[in-house]
Amino acid sequence: MDRLSLRSHPLRASLSEEMHVRRLPRFAAPCRLMQIVTVLGEEGAASAGVHFDAIGARVGVGLAPSAKYAVVDLDGMKLVLERHTEFASYTFIREGAFDQPFSPDVFDPVAADILEGMPGDVIRATQIAVYPPGTDPPAEDTLDTLFVPEALILCDVSDGKARVMSDFRLNPDGFGRLLLFDQGLLRDEPAQLVLRLQELGNYRNMALLGLPLAQRLTPDVSRLEARLATLTAAVSERVSQDDSLLDELTYLSAELARLLAETRYRMSATRAYAQLSLDRLETLGIGRIPGYQTLADFTERRLTPAVRTCDSFSARLADLSQRAAWTSELLRTRIDIALAKQNRDLLASMNTRTHLQLRLQQTVEGLSVVAISYYAVALIGYLAAPAHAWKEWVMVAAVPLVFGGAWLFARRLRRGLEE
After folding, report:
1. Which band of pLDDT confidence, cut at 50, 70 and 90, is reported for residue 250?
2. CA nearest 154: which of 287, 293, 284?
3. How many helices (H) does the chain have, and how many strands (E)?
4. Helices in 180-294 by DSSP H: which ranges?
5. Any bridge partners for residue 94, and if so which?
6. What is the pLDDT of residue 114?
7. CATH code for the part of the protein at 210-344
């Protein structure tokens, strides 16, 4: 056994524990539950861990610093603590008969003391009342005091083993309300059903967080699309200077990068939470009751359009980013072609200048040979001055020799410089 533990993967124990979290302890109807879910943000999970430690210390239970899930026994009830990636949940469970299904006072003052200093902002708060088998549903006038009649959702779940009632609206006390009627649930099934129902609502709310962001930034995307269309037309028609076009495209690309960075995480989280909600919806085994909308009707009616809006927003951003990249590449290609033409013209001009300089050099070289020959012949004339009769003939004979020698000297000098 010791050798087996030595060969264990470092994450073996944590992975095993991960398979046992995200559940509610077994309870039996009648029972009341209260769950509060707080959004912590991308980097706020550590604050929930600190709060969980403080709760454990308050009730005398030691919790691991990195605990994501814990069940704490309180005075006559249980508290389930769960820490997710960007939200945390606090679920209070109190078993026993009750007269009023919805009253947060039944969990106070213990709950108020426990939740003191709770990090994050509340995204969902729900009261749940679970009735035992054989309980008749409340009369219609009673339901009208509990729920908004025109918003009532009523359906069977768990293949007819339970019935659910709710309007999924916020009440004056800040809580949503859910009635659950047990019609044959066994052992862990009540806890599993409540967990699925709550996960459906929690993930649905987390998914909807992306909708206001997409709605708020959609006008910015439309403005950038219109500006990109104008810039693309300008690139194709050469109606402005390339440097100013490049500056505007650079600014537009920077704005797109900012929008992508601002929304990428939220849009990806929306898709993930929406898929989780739909997965939970499929596992509920929903049965329709004539005259009422079901959980599936309520969820799909609003969640699906919201997710599609977010997907459309993300697709528009990605498409706009790609189009901006294409336009920038087209403009850079045009600039490169213009630079190539300028370089070609510059090289042609340099070639012409080189030919002119060569011709000028040859002219100067010829004049230099003549000048050198002239002074050399004159010098020979001075040297031949004593022979008056032969002076002129000596100078005449020296002219071709001196000229030829000067020309050969200049040519050898030029070749040496060229080599």
Report:
1. confident
2. 293
3. 10, 9
4. 189-208, 210-237, 242-283
5. 32
6. 81
7. 1.20.58
d(CA 209, CA 76): 36
Contact 24, 194 (CB under 8 A): yes
Decide: 56 and 72 in contact? Cβ < 8 Å. Answer: yes
Give the closest residue to 307 by CA, choosing from 282, 279, 260, 272. Answer: 272
Q: What is the pTM of this model?
A: 0.76
**Residue the block writes with tokens 């300008």:** 234
Q: Is residue 72 within 8 Å of residue 81, measured between CB atoms? A: yes
Q: How far apart are CA 79 and CA 97, in angstroms?
A: 19
Q: Is 385 exposed, middle or buried (0-12, 13-18, 19+ CB in 10 A)?
A: exposed
Q: What is the rounded distance in angstroms from the CA atom of residue 308 to the CA atom of residue 257? A: 22
The amino acid at residue 398 is: A
Comparing 273 with 408, the larger pLDDT belongs to 273
Tell me how far apart the alpha carbons of residues 362 and 376 are, in angstroms, rounded to a whole number.
Answer: 21
CA dist., res. 133 & res. 147, Å (int): 22
Q: What is the pLDDT of residue 388?
A: 62
Q: Per residue in 38-62, is it b (16+ CB within 10 Å) or e — as a string?
A: bbbeeebbebbbebbeebbeeeeee
CA–CA distance, 402 with 369 (Å, rounded to integer): 9
Residue 1's pLDDT band, with cuts at 50, 70 and 90, is very low
Q: Write down the residue that tokens 């040979």 correspond to.
A: 369
Question: Half-sphere exposure of 352 toward its Cβ, with a 13 Å CA cutoff?
Answer: 5
For CA atoms 380, 384, 385, 391, give the dihedral sign: negative
Question: What would the two tokens of residue 212 be?
Answer: 């206001």
Q: Which ranges of 88-137 does DSSP label H, i.e. alpha helix? A: 110-114
- The whole-chain average pLDDT of the chain stands at 82
SS3 323: helix
- Mean pLDDT for the stretch of residues 175-203: 91
pLDDT tens per residue across span 158-175: 988 999 999 888 888 889
User: What is the distance of C-alpha 74 from the center of its chain?
Assistant: 41
CA–CA gap between residue 374 and residue 98 (Å, rounded): 133
- Compute the half-sphere exposure of residue 69: CA atoms within 13 Å on the CB side of its CA: 10
- Write down the residue that tokens 């009730």 correspond to: 59
